[in-house]
Write a structure and sequence with these properties.
Blueprint lengths: L1 H4 L7 H11 L7 E2 L1 H16 L6 H10 L6 E2 L1 H7 L6 H8 L3 H11 L9 H14 L6 H15 L9 H4 L10 H4 L6 H11 L6 E2 L1 H14 L9 H9 L7 E2 H8 L11
Helix pairs in contact: 7-14, 8-9, 13-14
The protein binds calcium ion (CA) (4 copies).
């Protein structure tokens, strides 16, 4: 039982995952509304039963969210309040503070440019994070972390992470990719748009071409995207590019709803 884990003084990474999935009833990657209500209630009960006080972090969390009906918390918020044995998920947060940093990391670790972070690439990512944080680890731990991280973020269960899945590592206010999820296009339409805005027809977007595209896109989707954030969007998306050359497959990660597996140079 996931709520029995809440009594624990320390929770393992996989127990933590069970807890998250247990309370995220609808599986949308967030604990919100009724889910959050029952999480808070059961957290308080479990601590009481175990003869433990709420920790300061838990108390602050309860105070902040108990009365906030619109609140939704992601996995990183949860990992920060539960006494998890290894808070390895927090290493991501420490390294990826902005959407631009996130996109740069994506570009680096999607080594085969498949448009996905597969398990072996995720493992390299985690290895670097652990080394940067000067955390001791062995091969077994690394495999466990990789497995857990994959399970946490792989919402569609295809065994690899797409950009939108991985972007849940970002704080919400930095995660404009969530918004772009709502303006993604079918492959055919995306290709048309790409050709239209690649004005010099050299097969990639430069910063000015992307700027023109984003302006029109924001104008057309004012309810979702923010015109005032165009330069933020642009900087982050350009971080996916190959030294300022944004090819079709890279832009497709953000704007195309379908899997576009054509070679980057087409
Ligand atoms: Ca949910
Ligand atoms: Ca890959
Ligand atoms: Ca996936
Ligand atoms: Ca161009």
């Amino acid at each position: 039982m996931a709520n029995a884990y809440l009594q624990g003084v320390e929770i393992s990474a996989s127990q933590f995952l069970d807890i998250f999935h247990h309370y995220d009833n609808d599986g949308n990657g967030y604990i919100e509304g009724k889910e959050l209500e029952s999480f808070i209630k059961e957290l308080q009960q479990a601590r009481k039963q175990a003869g433990l006080e709420l920790t300061d972090k838990m108390r602050a969390f309860v105070e902040e969210f108990q009365t906030n009906a619109d609140a939704k918390i992601g996995i990183i918020e949860l990992v920060q309040i539960l006494p998890t044995e290894e808070n390895f998920l927090l290493f991501f947060r420490q390294q990826l503070k902005s959407c631009t940093e996130f996109m740069q990391a994506w570009r680096r670790y999607d080594a085969d440019h498949s448009g996905y972070i597969e398990a072996d690439e995720l493992k390299n990512f985690l290895k670097d994070l652990l080394q940067k944080a000067k955390k001791p680890y062995d091969e077994k731990k690394l495999d466990e972390y990789t497995h857990t991280t994959l399970k946490v973020f792989d919402s569609n269960h295809d065994g690899k992470l797409c950009l939108a899945e991985m972007a849940r590592l970002l704080p919400d206010e930095e995660n404009f990719l969530l918004k772009f999820q709502n303006v993604k296009m079918a492959r055919k339409e995306f290709n048309k748009i790409f050709e239209l805005y690649d004005q010099d027809e050299n097969g990639y977007m430069d910063e000015n071409e992307l700027d023109a595209l984003l302006k029109d896109l924001c104008e057309k989707n004012k309810k979702v995207l923010e015109v005032s954030k165009i330069s933020t969007y642009k900087t982050a998306i350009m971080a996916l590019s190959d030294g300022g050359k944004l090819y079709r497959t890279e832009l497709a990660l953000v704007l195309c709803a379908e899997d576009i597996s054509a070679p980057a140079s087409l």
